[in-house]
Write a structure and sequence with these properties.
The chain is α/β, with parallel strands linked by helices and about 240 residues long. The protein has 2 domains: about 15-140, 3-Layer(aba) Sandwich (Rossmann fold); about 150-245, Arc Repressor Mutant, subunit A (Orthogonal Bundle), CATH 1.10.10.10. The chain contains 8 helices and 11 strands. It has helices at about 25-35, 45-55, 75-80, 100-105, 120-140, 175-185, 195-200, 210-225; strands at about 15-20, 40-45, 60-65, 90-95, 110-115, 150, 155, 160-165, 170, 235, 240-245. Strands 2-1-3-4-5 form a 5-stranded parallel beta sheet, sandwiched between helices. A 4-stranded antiparallel beta sheet has the order 6-7-8-9, covered by helices on one side. Strand 7 and strand 8 (about 160-165) form a beta hairpin.
Length: about 240
């Protein structure tokens, strides 16, 4: 089992980022811009060496290309998710089909960017993922509030990050859980896709609403008896989504 754990960065220490990218020009640009924004970066250009670096290092975030020699990005992402620690993964892909994006999310990626992408957007995504991790850490240190949410056969155990539907535990990704928890914590409240991007993902780029749509569809496929007629996560046409009251 992989035992890599997140770096214990303090406010005075730069965040550690592992970049696994086989295109030297792209890797150099990413490394340079991350460095200019105060990050310390290690670059690996193969999947197998990226995995070794991940095992041996203590990183705060991974930027991972989908197409890599020796071990593809999907396999590498899955291997990184077998450890106990949680480290956000931003996947880069030259493929733009929904299937490729869904596969990356299924393997445990937290977010993705399709090439070509702008470097300012990549930096914004990196910072947003790290803010999300910091916010989760802060919440874990706060006094415990409501820990169990129940609705018509669905149970959300907040502390254990566990979802059970009709007695069966659901295998949700970290982002799917956060999305469900956010909606279920405010039953009946309608959120637009932009609001969900801002409050769950940590950024609000217009044009990326499809990210929310993909996660909602995947979430419904796991928790709804009939995803076409959802009971829990409901669509408010022309506005967004809500959790049933």
């Amino acid at each position: 089992m992989i035992t890599s754990s997140p770096a214990t960065s303090s406010p005075d220490l730069p965040r550690q980022v592992l970049v696994v990218e086989d295109d030297p020009d792209i890797a150099s640009l990413i490394s340079m811009h991350l460095g200019d924004n105060g990050f310390e970066v290690q670059v690996e250009n193969r999947g197998d060496t990226g995995l070794e670096a991940f095992k041996e290092g203590a990183f705060d975030l991974v930027v991972l290309d989908l197409m890599l020699p020796n071990m593809d990005g999907l396999t590498l992402c899955r291997e990184m998710r077998t450890g106990n620690g949680y480290i956000p993964i931003l996947m880069l892909t030259a493929k733009s089909t929904e299937l490729d994006r869904v596969l990356g999310l299924e393997m445990g990626a937290d977010d993705y960017l399709t090439k070509p992408f702008s470097l300012p957007e990549l930096i914004a995504r990196v910072k947003a993922l790290l803010r999300r991790v910091d916010a989760l850490s802060a919440k874990q240190s706060e006094p415990k509030a409501v820990q169990i949410i129940k609705k018509s056969g669905l149970t959300i155990d907040v502390e254990k990050r566990q979802v059970v539907v009709e007695g069966q535990e659901m295998d949700l990704t970290a982002r799917e859980f956060d999305l469900l928890l956010h909606l279920a914590s405010h039953p009946g409240r309608v959120y637009s896709r932009i609001q969900l991007l801002d409050q769950v993902w940590g950024y609000s780029y217009e044009g990326y609403e499809h990210t929310v749509n993909t996660h909602i569809n995947r979430l419904r496929g796991k928790i709804e008896k009939d995803p076409a007629k959802p009971i829990y996560v409901q669509t408010v046409w022309g506005v967004g989504y809500k959790f049933a009251q």
